[in-house]
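Structure tokens please, single chain.
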Amino acid sequence: MDFVWKNIESLERTHGDSFFILNHSRFSENYHDFLNSFREIYVKTQIAYSYKTNYLPALCRYVNEAGGYAEVVSRMEYDLAVRLGVAPERIIFNGPYKSYDDIETAVLSGAIVNLDSPYEVNILSSIAERHSERDLAVGIRCNFSLPDSYESRFGFDINSEFGSVVKSIDAIPNCNIVGLHCHICTSDKQPESYAEMTKAMLSLTDEYLADRSLKFIDLGGGFFSRMDERLKQQFSCHIATFQDYASAIAPYFSKKYSDASGPELILEPGLALTADTMQFCAKVIDIKRVGERFVMLVSGSVYEIKPTLSPKNLPMHIVSQSQSARPLAQTGVFDVVGYTCMENDVLYRGFEGTVAVGDYAIFNNVGSYTLVLSPSFIRPNPPVIMYDAASDKSEVLKRRECLGDVFTSYL
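Here you go.
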């Protein structure tokens, strides 16, 4: 979204000197483009939106209304999905830590629980014995390696535990395995890796689960998002498109299950749907020279736009008043720094341009993980708004935090 000075000045008067701006229509576009890329090849494809990436209720609610699943990895996220009206059978519960009560609540409600570790199998067995009148259904997360993939700690290793876990669950009279799940990340997120993962998953179903009709095969997430060209240039690999991923994965399903009786192909994009849906605006507070460089202090923090402290510069531009209103503007190369007392609080290194105190720095591609990982460190978190420039109207989706929000749990 492009802004002019009067837009940002108006938003500052209402919302303060830093805030996130959500482009909801971009999220909707990403959701449907991603899904349709796969459905054009394998119609039984569905998205399970990764709540942990950005659990703004406005986004989670939209996915539910569009017919997608909620992919959650904690009881907090599970309860959020239920509160938002998501039917339990449309919730996929992943993650390495689930308590007895978590598994019992989710399984008995009809949610999809993907077992991750042996202790969860033991819990399932106990729940099944306590509720012997109920038929329980679960999925299994598997673990295997791909070229250039990270060595994952999640799921059951297909070369050691996986076969025995299948037998253990089959030995529980009222339990059924209805799906298979994996989430394997490679360093460059290339479609070829997803093709290899797909072949491995389908081979696994043939070897261990061929005698049953699976409801789903879930290939997880980790896909590239759409991104600004300035950000693409900082990667050393090809930035795959939604169509690239669909062409690498879906044909294997359409070929194997050509009669439309096959399992649902579930994908769990988070970053791919959200990374280009938000911008962050922070006011320029001061400019000073330190050695040979200019330092631009803004009313934001690197922890709000890059909480993982990525070395990549997110696309940024300056919104300013007319030149006549900026007599003290500086032209040069700037390090954009934040309000915390940490030396690594640098939002952008080497920004070239003309900047004045009172301008606004706008950062793009901040929709993924920024809200959920950003701590209330030194200043409470800024608000999230939707904004219509034509009418100059804004809607608060998450209000600016205050002292009480940060300290309410302290005694």
